[in-house]
Amino acid sequence: MPDLLNTREGGDGPRLERAFRALAPGGWRAVPCPLIGFRPTGGVLVPEGAVPVFTSAKGVRSVPGGAGPAWGVGPHTAEVARAAGWDAREGEGDAASLVAAILRAPPVPGPFLHVRGRHARAEVAALLRGGGREASEVVAYDQPLLEPPEEARRALRGAAPLVVPLLSPRAAAHFAALAGNACAPLHIVALSRAVAEAWGRPVAAVADRPELASLAEAAAPLLVGGAGGR
Length: 230
Fold this sequence. Notes:
Blueprint: E1 3-6, H1 12-23, E2 30-32, E3 39-40, E4 51-54, H2 57-61, E5 69-72, H3 75-83, E6 87-90, H4 95-104, E7 112-117, H5 124-130, E8 135-142, H6 150-157, E9 162-166, H7 169-178, E10 186-190, H8 193-199, E11 205-206, H9 212-225
Parallel strand pairs: 1-2, 1-9, 4-5, 4-7, 5-6, 7-8, 9-10, 10-11
Antiparallel strand pairs: 3-8
Helix pairs in contact: 1-9, 7-8
Protein name: Uroporphyrinogen-III synthase
Organism: Hasllibacter halocynthiae
Pfam family, one: HEM4
């Protein structure tokens, strides 16, 4: 039976493990190996009347809570925003569907503000402006690349297979550099085709939807049966 290399940092790590254990209970262990950190820049505020657009729950956690309308990229981010007081609507888990949902919705009085990390693939504010909406962006947090802890290094040097969930192209590229000399068989589970392409090698599975629940569904057979590709 393979083990899980838990590639998420902070509170996202336990959430990932819970999602995977719900669908693949068993004797596998979770080895912490956070790939990307979370560092709020501090001092970022959402101006009164602006409608924040959160493409990550980290963005929600990087600004004070509010009470007005907001958007979250998917159900989890919107849920975190609601817990912070925002009246949040949600997209389908990726930036393209989020922008499409905002453009379909009735226009709101205030301008949109994309609360983003320093490293972001989608230019959400530019896409909204292209759709005729007033929009700007603010960098509210940084995402430093992290080195694997010693326990993860030992697992990568070992012979036991590892199921490795990768949730962003940047994380995938970083792990590809880290795992170049790995001895353990690696069963990569990618959140999307873009993530799989950034990994640059065969993957064991790709999630049907860019959501943690779908990623867990893709990984569950690997944790139970251990089949996959390196």
